[in-house]
Design goal:
single chain; 516 residues; mainly beta; 6-stranded antiparallel beta sheet; 2 helices; 3% helix; binds 2,5-dideoxy-2,5-imino-D-mannitol
């Protein structure tokens, strides 16, 4: 590793691990880097039965700099083994960072396509792996695409989606066309090394809507991910009504905004968008998602759960960034995506508490659930009467001063759509942390809601009838109470199951893991 050079590298390297491990806010059953900085999931895949998770990593400290590819494997998407860093910057086109990319199987050869960063710009690079995916050799021809398309004024150009179509490879590179909007440039190749530019797959319109909107498509698209949600492979004639999906992370002038997806149809050299959707109501707290199809045919997605505390607080903590739990991604009847943590996660469930079914009446007192913990998995079945609002509180301190509220509400009249909201205004006494409200619509037929809430210290993942809301919280009082109340109207609690969750890491991780 290079010497400490960055002004933010104020925590000695040998203190990073101890600081990170001592932080009570650090998740225990989500994947986190050994210490230092983690951002995007990369090269997510299953290879000969083993799951691989690569990630944007800076082992020098908890700040984004000189990014490498961390690497971990798992037999089950639950427990992870750290492996040596897969890609590290070296003299040449990735001298300043190995930014995001994907893993593909090139006739049996594991191959990474990633963005090499050099002199403030990124260009596509390739590396091939040993059969165990632990040793990577960069292609001498890097960058494999020498420059962005000529004659287009772009804002940025990076991140990759690569797939096999017929006898050719196809690749998307995320970008933005100035004065127009985000885009993904389409290329084709027969060998992953020599690429022909085809054109923009589709172009967003940054002038549509208000830049403050939670579905504004941004001026640049990061981490584009194109897949067929139904049967068949990309580009083949569809045999069902399931859409093709183009996921992207809307970016604007250095600001990571939120993940969105278009549903539509990819055919020929274009993607015809039909509808735009928010991918996660937590916005930037589930950023840069990447998905893959595993050997059982499931589409599994990971996202980067950014921090909501200050840069200085992250540096001091010695670590930054959480990988979401892997999510099974399916298509709902209305053609939108639905998400749920992979069922394998249930292996971590320990103490089980059941709260009896009952009627909750508005403005009443909170129910004493008897559930408590800062590592919990909660499953509730609720039925809200028209006009009802139900609040589930987690990480509540004994006196209730700190509490994170998950609020479900149903409109008083007619519509089968309700709202999921995360109210973090009392999550933390720390005035510096992000407490912005997050919310979004939830289909709610007859007021029925299946609510899943996974709390892992500062990481919270919520799924209401399959619609996710992911965020970070920073309680200071160590609260573990779980509360439930109807605050408007009435609701029936049909079932409520809660489990504490075991941790997945031993205390002996290394900043720079050695091979097995
Ligand atoms: N992070 C990576 C980029 C990507 C961005 C760099 C998204 O490749 O565009 O660490 O978070």
């Amino acid at each position: 590793m290079t010497e400490l050079t960055h002004p933010l590298a104020t925590v000695p390297r040998d203190e990073l691990l101890t600081r990170a491990e001592a932080d009570p806010l650090r998740p225990r059953f989500h994947f986190v880097s050994p210490a230092g900085w983690l951002n995007d999931p990369n090269g997510v895949s299953q290879w000969n039965g083993t799951y691989h998770l690569f990630y944007q990593y800076n082992p020098e400290g908890a700040f984004h700099h000189r990014i490498q590819w961390g690497h971990a494997t798992s037999p089950d998407l639950v427990t992870w083994t750290d492996l040596p860093v897969a890609l590290e910057p070296s003299a040449g086109p990735d001298a300043d960072g190995c930014w995001s990319g994907v893993l593909v199987n090139d006739g049996g050869t594991p191959t990474l396509v990633y963005s090499g960063r050099f002199e403030g710009k990124e260009l596509p690079c390739v590396a091939v792996g040993s059969p165990d995916l632990q040793n990577w050799t960069k292609d001498p021809g890097n960058p494999v695409i020498a420059a962005p398309p000529a004659g287009v004024e772009i804002s940025a150009y990076r991140d990759h989606c690569v797939w096999r179509e017929g006898t050719k490879w196809r690749q998307l590179v995320g970008s933005g066309i100035r004065h127009r909007g985000g885009t993904a440039f389409l290329y084709e190749s027969s060998d992953l090394r020599s690429w022909d530019y085809i054109g923009p797959l589709c172009i967003g319109d940054a002038s549509q809507g208000d830049p403050a909107d939670t579905d504004w498509t941004g001026t640049m698209w990061e981490c584009v991910d194109l897949f067929r949600a139904g049967q068949g492979s990309l580009g083949s004639v569809p045999t069902d009504n399931a859409p093709d999906v183009l996921v992207f992370s809307a970016w604007d002038d250095g600001e990571t905004r939120h993940p969105l997806y278009w549903t539509g149809r990819y055919a020929g050299d274009a993607f015809e968008p039909e509808a735009l959707h928010r991918l996660d109501y937590g916005g930037r707290f589930f950023y840069a998602p990447q998905s893959f199809e595993d050997e059982s045919g499931r589409r599994v997605m990971f996202g980067w759960m950014q921090e909501g505390r200050s840069d200085a607080a992250m540096v001091e903590a010695g670590w930054s960034g959480v990988m979401s739990l892997p999510r099974v991604t399916t298509v709902a009847n209305d053609g939108t995506l639905e998400f749920a943590p992979v069922p394998e996660i249930e292996k971590l469930r320990r103490n089980h508490v059941t709260v009896p079914g009952q009627v909750l009446v508005g403005a009443g007192r909170s129910l004493e659930t008897g559930v408590s913990g800062n590592q919990v998995d909660l499953e509730l079945d609720l039925q809200l009467a028209p006009g009802a609002e139900v609040r589930l509180g987690v990480l509540a301190s004994p006196d209730g001063v700190e509490e994170t509220l998950i609020v479900l509400s149903r409109a008083a009249h007619g519509t089968p759509v309700g709202t999921l909201r995360l109210d973090r205004t009392r999550s933390s006494l720390d005035p510096a942390v992000d407490v912005e409200d997050k919310s979004g619509p939830v289909p709610m037929m007859d007021g029925r809601v299946r609510l899943r809430v996974v709390v892992d210290r500062s990481a919270v993942e919520i799924f209401a009838n399959g619609k996710p809301l992911t965020a970070r919280v920073y309680p200071t009082l160590g609260g573990e109470r779980v509360t439930l109340a109807a605050t408007e109207g009435s609701a029936r609690l049909l079932t409520f199951d809660a489990w504490t969750m075991a941790g997945i890491f031993e205390s002996t991780r290394s900043l720079l893991p050695q091979g097995k």
